[in-house]
């Protein structure tokens, strides 16, 4: 259950990052509201998963999901560049996440 909550927390991190971009510096109401709501959910689920998972594992997985997810959303929805080096960086992050999961005792 802790792993599931951690993955959902990471997905909510992507939501708040995207909505923060859409808020244009917190000048647009609804994207700002979504940003803060998604932050609360994301942090809450991260905290809950940390009851079971080690800090280093949970935080690394959470930020990794957020990083790769934000990269993907940026490319798919915001027209950000999809270059070989950026793809390689995302692959390396995912590889690190897999290794972190495999090395976790839970």
From TrEMBL:
Subcellular location: Cell membrane
Pfam families in alphabetical order: Multi_Drug_Res (PF00893)
TM stretches of this protein: 27-46, 58-79, 85-102
Gene Ontology molecular-function annotations: transmembrane transporter activity
Main location: membrane
SUPFAM superfamilies (UniProt xref): Multidrug resistance efflux transporter EmrE
Keyword Lipoprotein listed: no
Keyword Cell membrane: yes
Membrane topology according to the record: Multi-pass membrane protein
GO biological process: xenobiotic detoxification by transmembrane export across the plasma membrane
Sorted UniProt keywords: Cell membrane, Membrane, Transmembrane, Transmembrane helix, Transport
GO CC term, one of those recorded: plasma membrane
Domain of life of the source: Bacteria
Protein family per UniProt: Belongs to the drug/metabolite transporter (DMT) superfamily. Small multidrug resistance (SMR) (TC 2.A.7.1) family. Gdx/SugE subfamily.
Protein name, UniProt field: Guanidinium exporter
Organism annotation: Teichococcus deserti
């Amino acid at each position: 259950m802790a792993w599931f909550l951690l993955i959902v927390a990471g997905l909510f991190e992507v939501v708040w990052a995207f909505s923060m971009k859409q808020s244009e510096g917190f000048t647009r109401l609804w994207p700002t509201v979504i940003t803060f709501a998604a932050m609360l959910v994301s942090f809450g689920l991260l905290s809950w998963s940390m009851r079971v998972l080690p800090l280093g594992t949970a935080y690394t997985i959470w930020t990794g999901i957020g990083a790769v997810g934000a990269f993907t959303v940026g490319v798919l929805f915001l027209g950000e560049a999809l270059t070989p080096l950026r793809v390689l960086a995302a692959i390396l992050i995912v590889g690190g996440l897999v290794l972190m999961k495999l090395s976790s005792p839970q």
